[in-house]
Design goal:
The structure holds 2 protein chains of 2 kinds. By secondary structure, chain A is an alpha+beta fold. Chain A has helices spanning 3-29, 92-103, 119-123, and strands at 67-71, 129-133, 137-142, 147-152, 169-175, 178-184, 204-213, 216-224, 233-241. Chain A has 3 helices and 9 strands. In chain B, 11% of the residues lie in helices and 36% in strands. The chains are: A alpha+beta, B mainly beta. Chain A binds chain B through residues 21-22, 24-25, 28-29, 31, 34, 74, 76, 104-107, 109, 111-112, 114, 125-127, 143-144, 194, 245, 248-256, 258-259, 261-264, 266-267, and chain B through 5-8, 11, 18-24, 26-28, 30, 45, 47-50, 52, 70, 73-76, 78-79, 81, 83, 100-103, 125.
Chain lengths: 267, 140
Amino acid sequence: MTDKSKGKRQKAKETLLTLAFCLLTYTITSAQWHGYKTPGIPRLPDGSPNLSAPAPKTMDGKPDLSGIWQASRAVFDLAQAVKKGETVPFSAEGKKIFSERRATQSKDDPSARCLPTGLPVRALLRTPFKIIQTPPVMAILYESRTTFRQILTDGRPLPEVDWPAWNGFSVGRWQGDTFVAETAGFNGKPWLDQAGYPASDALKITERFRRRDFGHMDMEMVIDDRKMYTKPWSIFGEFILQADTELIEFICEENERDAAILQGQQR
Amino acid sequence: MKRFSVVGALCIALAPAAVSAHHSFAAQYDATKQVTLQGTITKVEWMNPHAYFYIDVADESGKVVNWAVEGGAPNVLYREGWKPTSLKAGDRVTILGSRARDGSNLVNALSFKLPDGRCVFAGTSGPGGTGTPNCTVGRR
């Protein structure tokens, strides 16, 4: 055997070993359904998801928003999610609370104590959420904190609320191909984001979801809280379909140890 | 770091950095006070809301001090390619992190440098939590 052919054989051997290693690694990284190919997803010839395929429809012809989604850009500060050039229209009270929170580095964010995050920032985290669309309800399962919301779509109105809630109460309807969710009845406890944008019990949130195609969905969220802000204002987000994965459990209280030592002042 | 797969770690290194936090970074850590810890992993807590790694580090006099290292949320790390067993007690690593404001032996990890020189993302929510992992102090 010549040196040249020996070299070729050695190279082929190394390639095979590398391929075997990659396959083994793929098996490992496919654990717990992360990597398991989601059925029913249009795919390109190479097997990758075709995110530009048409958005699916339900039996009644409405867009089907079902799937696992994640914001294309993570945001902890809602100022990064408003339209360019726009500012948040604080009321005097809202500005005072926000300024206090900034001055203390958001140390009192209820989220740090594993209490629920506000709906705006929860939508824009770098962790996914899953939408399950059925005729009477649009359910949203958030990986963050393993929490859920249900947006009732059976035609009922928003309720008279005598027991306000962290997540409020949500009803939804279709306006053409846009799904509109209205939420009210908040208890005023969660912050809208980690920066400290406040909310009161007067908060009403309107979300508009539009699935552009199979892999992309746009959201406008209108925040209307006349105690904290002088007029409604909007944040925007884009969600990307997360194929071949599943939600991962997240029990915040499991080993929470930071809240007790958070500090508000620079040293 | 034999337990870190070459491809997996490469994927971590090349993956877009993800951030997730259940609390304000600035309320607990000082991004201007970076420290490099080189030592041996003594314990791993793969738990929510943050993975914790404990590392024995010898100071200049040779005295060994145990540091706590806060990483990202396990779900974020997992999606980046980490596994609960990616690091184990006895592994030698170099960690770049931001020190806790209270002066304790606690850091928020920006990156882990593996024995073979590769630098992997640690899931921080603080400055440097986006972009390519970088294990060099002062460069994020």
